[in-house]
Every structure is written in C-alpha cells, then in structure tokens.
Amino acid sequence: MTAGTRAFRQFVLKVHSRCDLACDHCYVYEHADQSWRHRPRVMPDEVVSAVVSRIAEHARAHPELPCVHVILHGGEPLLAGPERLADIARRLRGALDGVCELDLGMQTNGLRLDEAVCRMLVEERISTGISLDGDRDSNDRHRKRPNGTGSYDAVVRAVRLLGSPAHRSAFAGLLCTIDVANDPRAVYDALAALDPPRIDFLLPHTTWDRPPPPGAAHARWLTTVYDRWSADGRPFPVRLFDSVEAGLDAQESFTEALGLGSPDLIVVETDGEIEQADWLKTTKHGAPRTGFHVLHHTFDEAARHPGFLAQSGGLEALSRQCRDCSVVRICGGGLYGHRYRSDNGFDNPSVYCADLFQLIGHVRRSDRPKPGAPSHTLTAHGFDSLAAGDGDGEALRVVVDAETSRRRILLAAVCARCPGPEASAVTRLDQQHPAETAAVLSHPHLGTWAVRALDGQVPHDAVRQRLGEVALATALRTGGRFRLNLSESAPHAHLPGTGRLTLPPSHGPVALVAHDEELLIALGPSGRPRPVREAAADLGIGWQPVRRVATGEFSLLLEDGDPYRDGFATEPLPQLTEPQYADWIRLFAEAATHLRTRYAHRMPGVRALLAACTPLHGAGNQGGVSTDPHAFGALGLALPDTAPALGALIVEGVQQVKFNALSDLFDLADTDVARESLRSAYLGRRQGREIPHDGLTSHGRRMAARLRG
Fold this sequence. Notes:
Blueprint: E1 10-14, H1 45-61, E2 67-73, H2 82-96, E3 101-108, H3 115-124, E4 126-131, H4 136-140, H5 152-162, E5 171-177, H6 184-192, E6 199-202, H7 217-231, H8 239-248, E7 265-268, E8 273-275, E9 289-293, H9 299-302, H10 306-310, H11 320-323, H12 328-331, H13 353-365, H14 380-387, H15 393-417, H16 421-432, H17 434-441, H18 445-454, H19 460-478, E10 482-486, E11 492-495, E12 499-502, E13 510-515, E14 518-523, E15 530-531, H20 532-539, E16 542-545, E17 547-550, E18 555-558, H21 578-598, H22 603-609, E19 612-615, E20 624-626, E21 634-638, H23 643-665, H24 672-682, H25 698-708
Parallel strand pairs: 1-2, 1-7, 2-3, 3-4, 4-5, 5-6, 18-19, 19-21
Antiparallel strand pairs: 7-8, 8-9, 10-13, 11-12, 12-16, 13-14, 14-15, 17-18, 20-21
Helix pairs in contact: 1-2, 2-3, 7-13, 8-13, 14-25, 15-16, 15-18, 15-22, 16-17, 16-19, 17-19, 21-23, 22-23, 24-25
C-alpha cells in the first residue's frame, strides 16, 4: 500500500456528458454546478487510455484491493455508442489482468437499449442498472423527454428486454428517485412487477439551502415501502433498507449515504478532470473540483485533496448534533452532500435528519430477520435459472452469500468449542470488520477445516493455531495489529489467502505480527519483529505468498499449500515448482479463450463461484476434476494436456459446485439413486428426459423439469 493515501475502490467514468432525457430533478444539469456546459460530449480516446492506465496503476499501488468497481456514467453513457463502451470494457480488463478483479457497471435511462446493445452488455460483463421512478404517472412526473413527453413506455420496454433470460446476467437492478407526491404503494408495486434483481431508492439530492418538505415526509414514504416489501417476502434486495438493517446489526453499510465508513469513490469527467462524488454538484458551482487531471496526476495524489480527507474523518468529523445522536453509527450523518449549508459548509446533520431518524426507528421496531441467521432468498426465477444449469447474476449471488453464511456459522461453532485469545480475536474482528473477515472466510478450505475441527479430527492446538491464522489474515486486511504466538513444534503457518510460512526444525519461540497491513516475524522471546520477506533469507524460514491464476475472464487462487486441501477424490500434488506453476498459468490463459467462445453461457457461474483450484495427481492426458463438498468454490484438478480439455473440466467442476450448493439449500431427492440421477443430468452426463420421477422431492421435480427443457 502507498503510505499515507487512501485506496479508491469505485471509479465513476463520465463517458458522455449529455443526456437524451430532460429530467427536472437531475443533479448534473439542474443544480448549482453547471460545469457540464464546458466539457466535451464524449470522453476522448486520450483520456480513456489515461484513466485505464491510472486505475491499473492505483490497483498495483494498493494490493489490498482484491477488486475495483468501475461505473460507466453520464449524462447518458449509451450516447457514447456500444462500440466505444465495449472498447473501454476490454481496455479495463486488459489493464487489470493479473492485478485485481474488475466489477464493471453502468447506469442508464434505458432509452437506447436494444437486442444488440444487451448482447454487448452480456458479452462484456457490464452490469447495468436502469433508472425508473415507478408507475407511469410517478415516472413521467420528472423523467421527461426534451419535448416534454414521458419516458415510461420506453424505459419499461428496456427493463423487460434486459431482464429477459438471454440478458438477465447483465441486469443490475432499478434506481428510483423518491418524490413524496407519488403514491409509495403504486411505485413499489410497479417496480416489483418487473422482477428486478435489486432496487435502490434514492433520496433527492438537496441541501439546507433548499430543504425538502417538513414533517419527515420522506420517512413516511419509505416506511410504507419498507412494510410493503417486508409483507411481500422481501423478493429482492433494497440497498437502503438492507443498509439500515446492517447498521442495526453492527455491520457495514452498503451505501455511502449511511454509516461511518470512509467513502472510496472518485469521478473522472469527460475531459479527464478528477473530481469528488458528483452529488456535490448540488451544493455550489465547482464543489466537486480537485484541480487534478488523469493526464498529469495519479489517484494517490488526488486522494490527498482536502475534500476527500474531510469525508474520511469518521465520527469525529461529524457535527455536534450528529455525534450526540443515538443512531449516529447507523446513519453516519447521512450523505455528505446533504449536510451542506452555505453559511457553515458541511458542519451540519443531514437535511434528511428527521427522515433518517424515523426510518431507522421504524426498522428497529419491525419484525425482521435476526442477525446471525440471515435470510438468503432465492426467488422462483432464480431457482429455475440455476436448475436449468446456468443461473442469473442475482441467483449466483444468493448462493455465494448463503455459503458464506454457512462458513461463518461453522467458524462461530469452532470458536465456541475452542475458546481462547485466538477465538476472541476472530469474533471481535468479525464484529468490527465484517467485510474483511468475509473476504478471508471466502477461502474454500476453511470449510473443510471447520467441519473436521467440529468432528474432533483436528488436535486442539492445531485448531487454535488455525483460528489465529484467520485472525492474522483478517488483521492484515484491516491494517490493525494482531500477534500470533506459534507453538515451538509448529512446522508451518498458513494464512488463508495470504501465504504459507515454513519453519526450520527446533525453531524455538516464533511470533507472527500483523501491523499496518504488513506481516512481521519475531524469533525468540525478545526478538524484534521484522518484515517476513526480509527475514526469510536471514533466518532460514520459507515464505511462499499465495499463488494466483488471473486471466482476462476470471481470477482464482492456485492453492497448493493449504494443509486442508485433501478433501478431493484424488490426492493433491505437493507444492508446484516454478516451471509447473508457469505451465498452469499458460494453460489457464489458453482455456479462458476457449471458455469465452465455447461456454459463454456458463461463464457467469465460473466467475461467481470459482475461487480456488488445487492441483491433483492424475493419470492420462485428459486430466480430471472433483469437488470437496465442504470447500465451496474449490476445484481439484489434474491438469490435462490441452486448453479445450481444461475448459471442459472447469465447466464440469463449476456445475458440480452449483449442484452441491443447491443440495445445501434445498432437499432435492429422497434417495441416493434419485439424487445421483439428477446430478448426472445436471452435469450433462445423461439426457434430462432420462431422469426418473421416483424419489425426487418437489424441488427435485422442478429441477428435472427445467433440465428436460
């Protein structure tokens, strides 16, 4: 990490500065800042090249970033043309290949979506949200064309097209700007009827200079929608409501509009100017400006701008009224731009303070799913999409979230079984840093270890060391401090997702220390902690950072060192030599091209579910694949000779992962014979019409029907 600078995780690229709607509530064109008038309409190629290079440069400077999120924005980004958007997507993936993952999104009004554009969005993996304010009357109140006519029919057509089975993997959800003059029930019902993967309700951007209607009208509107959504069985996530509930459960918010997390978003305008979040345009002319430019400055330089620093002060940077409030850790003072008043800047509570206070209180008093037993709702559409063999983006996310919760429950049970400083540290870190803990827990083989530990197959001291390794790996991500004292007989330590330490015999007391995102090692009772990479050569220890395989299509761990990677049908290989590792990288890169052309429909599942691969012993040039039922996201692979064979094995393995996950979530069959018949058809080893009806549950029969087509 570059000392003294923050890591930006979200990059908003203004690829086009104009719009083909004339919405009267738009913060870009209708508020204080009018800088759009002087910017180029389309982001020039020179700026595109520079911003792509700067994002990759920033990701390399901050290895703590496993993924960066890039949002193509405007104006209306589709005015830039589908070819240009596809080119930007390819440039970004090429620049970030081998550096970190890319989550690429776009927000559009939907008017220019057609079959060809939707195909491009699927092919280039651009997750796209559409702006729609509800039913016809509600939407057309503000979202008008330049000639004054409404946009509702065209937008709904676009939503249905993007939400169709062929394109749904590129559908991110709906964005609705609230107007309290609209009927909240009618708005919710109209949006829900379109079966979106998620909805985001946006409070209109305004300030204390132009306050909203008094009397907490927005709270009443939102609580009505919250109650209807809850009564409806919560058929899709709603980011605002999910964030309030996360705050009530001492977890991180999903939106910068709530919570005390440091904002991590930066904007690049069409002319290359680097700016703060563009909702600041509602405060005063030039408010988002930083004076930095992608042609001349790095994002680390921009991060030192006082505007970014002012938003990162946490609780102490809030107004006195906010600091004294009982819900401050949930609300976080609201969106930074909503605190503005011309006479004293941002030293105020949110202009929606009363609304947020009432909404939080209403959610707190409501009957909702309890923390620790999260509800992972797979809709009927989601089940059907997975049952047919593929799975849309939302269904795949639910599967991943459910398996993450399952692993958290296992970890909590291990901590309860083996109390001590290591278990306490894991519990504390999970409460204070749930996102970083979840990232560590995503390591598949922690599931195998936890099951064995609970079955009594792992010695008590080894369980405690593994808990300490989990705490240490998490502390490295948070930048906090944690010390793990290893047993004098411990031959190694394996930090999930970080690396493996091998110690010499009779090494004496050893401590591993996480400090300021750096791993240190101390030998002897009074040894001075030193960076592990520096100490490795001097002290006779071995340090192997975790290996990764990154292609332009997906990235995964090459796990050849974890002590619990032996849950596959075949014995794992010992740690690969560097030439062997190079062979795996080469063949995976070739297989990625084959997967993109031959198995495009399976690629969303590969990207979402494949987290790690363990090299296995194998005979024959066709290789082999297997899964460990307790290691969700991991494949065991005996490497074949050719890229097409490897591509086929990856697809088969990911299908096994999907089937195992569905079996965890649903009872599919009453007998082993029926379950194996269903599995065989799911993996393509037999025709769907050959699946017998006997022995299947209702969910199993529904899956069989989808496989029969």
